[in-house]
Design goal:
CATH superfamily: Chloramphenicol acetyltransferase-like domain
CATH architecture: 2-Layer Sandwich
CATH class: Alpha Beta
CATH topology: Chloramphenicol Acetyltransferase
Order of helices and strands: EHEHEEEHEEHHHE
Radius of gyration: 20 Å
Low-confidence stretches: 214-218
Mean pLDDT: 87
Structural class: alpha/beta
Number of domains: 1
Largest sheet: 5 strands, mixed
Shape: globular
Distance between the termini: 40 Å
Number of helices: 6
Length: 218
């Protein structure tokens, strides 16, 4: 693999990497999937090219995470690729069961942050005019704010719309590293001074995965 950059992890990424490491052999709650159902004509080759375009715009989506140094780092590839699967499921076995089986394998793959890529895409043709487009990613490279932007860029590229230049990920990591942590700690200590009551952010049994659906234009 040709390397374009080696960057430190953000504090949030450090925590997510720790959780991914301790969750080995079990289901990582930070492995996410977005399932988009599309009805009508869809060109699988154009969609794959669109995903490739977006990965090249944001190569940190294909980062490898290494803990072989004093501090963990993310290795940004010079030629990023997102693993892609295309399956036609409109005959024979139950399509839903086949989709679930592949999706489970995709989730397991993005949990292996040392040897596998944290972002993957799969397209299932479930009928003559119906597809399921599944994006699988680890939260360490995509957060909730970024996901709508990412999906929007994929479909904009699919429809050959011009996208603005992407901001290099290094700029964000550098900005974050340049913050004055002692000042930040002092500010938060002042805000939280005297706060002693625990806050319940989620009740028992609320850690399971929620269902998400997105239906494309008809």
């Amino acid at each position: 693999m040709r390397i374009a950059d080696v960057l430190p992890l953000t504090p949030l990424q450090q925590g997510l990497l720790f959780h991914a490491r301790t969750a080995q052999g079990s289901d990582d709650l930070y492995a996410m999937q977005l399932d988009i159902t599309v009805t009508g004509p869809l060109d699988q080759h154009r969609l794959r090219d669109a995903v490739h375009t977006v990965i090249n715009r944001h190569p940190n989506l294909a980062a490898r995470f290494s803990e072989k140094f004093d501090q963990p780092v993310q290795i940004i590839p010079a030629d990023p690729e997102a693993p892609w699967r295309y399956l036609e499921l409109d005959g024979g076995a139950d399509p839903g069961e086949q989709v679930q089986r592949v999706c489970a394998a995709e989730r397991a793959s993005v949990c292996d942050l040392a040897d596998e890529l944290p972002f993957r895409a799969a397209l299932f043709r479930t009928a003559a005019d119906r597809h399921q487009f599944v994006l699988t990613f680890h939260h360490i490279v995509v957060d909730g704010w970024s996901l709508p932007i990412l999906v929007g860029e994929i479909f904009a590229s699919y429809y050959q719309q011009r996208l603005p230049a992407a901001v290099p990920y290094r700029r964000f990591v550098t900005w974050l590293a340049d913050r004055h942590l002692e000042s930040a700690h002092a500010a938060w200590r002042e805000v939280l001074a005297g706060f002693e009551t625990p806050t319940l952010v989620g009740g028992p049994g609320r850690s399971g995965l929620g269902r998400r659906d997105h239906h494309g234009p008809r």
